[in-house]
Design goal:
By secondary structure, the protein is an all-alpha fold. 71% of the residues lie in helices and 2% in strands. It has 13 helices and 2 strands, in the order αααααααααββαααα. It is elongated, with a radius of gyration of 28 Å.
Amino acid sequence: MVYLLKYEWHKFIRTKKNWLVFLLILCSFIGYVSFNGYQNHVYIEAKTEQFSKARQNAMYDITNMANYQFLAKKEKDKQYYGNAIEYFKRLYSCANDLYRDYSTSAVSLDDLMQWNDLLIEGKIKKYTIISYTTHSLDYLKKTQKEYRYLKKNHIPIKHSPYVCTTSNLAVNLSNHYLGAVLLILYFLLIFDIFKEFDQGVYKILFTSKYDTLKIILTKVVFSIFLLIGFIGLIVLLFGVNTMIFGMGNTQYSFSVGNHIYMESKILMYIIFITIAMSLFLIGVYTLISCLFKSTTTSLVITITLYLMVNLFSQNLHKINYFIGFLNVDMFSMLQQNKIFTICIMNIVVLIVCVISSVSLLKKKDLIVTGD
């Protein structure tokens, strides 16, 4: 198998396409960081504008409540408008503090907690606060729970979900579409690993030295080595990013469903899921390649399968949480508590695909020629 692995390695490094993929990975990473930097700038500006308008709206509501209180004839109504004035004064003060915080990119968790508590109070007392928030009371209470957890554990708040720290960028890769991009980039590295089919070499009967199982296993093992190298390259790029923007706080929490996950735990899950999805991809592509004996056909079928399943994933919700290739939405997987189930299922799929591939080629072998 050592000689076969050397053969695959020489074939890999001599393929110009692979070097272009490495360049594409580098450009994609730079673009990803740049996009987050731009989004961070836009987010800060939007928040600054939001709380600037909130101050103006609060002043307007204070004036209106004062007029209503002056015109009210019943003592009960006067008391109601008086309480409303005090509420909107507190809302104005908090909005002013948050405007200052976002203007200086130094957001205070206490200010955010106070703002969220005021919005909850306004919802409960049925004040008209639609100009301050469109979120439901349940959403505000969930946010309140997360803020209190951060406060209790002395975890600093992020001023933006788009900060370019390594931990934040890595966790954002759990996004459905970004995860898909990672898989596609890896797929571009391995899709021609069966190019002997295109060359017709597989038609030559195998020598006794190399059997079908050994060749298929070699290609699978080499694909796994490429996966390790691919992950290593991504880690290296994140290492460079850490030197520039910092690591960030890996203890920041995420609220998913009724559970709160630490960022460090999310990072661990990302590694598991990336490996599991890639193993599934290796297995499926191996089987399709051995079935159709054409890298181009296999490429088209695999990508088409991937796109169709993602487009119609809502109709396949009963199975797409068990097979990582069908759903790369990390937070959905966390919410369904299927992380380790997915990993095990994908390993099983890989084994089944390898066995099926060997069965398809039991009377045909691939000749491996020396360099």
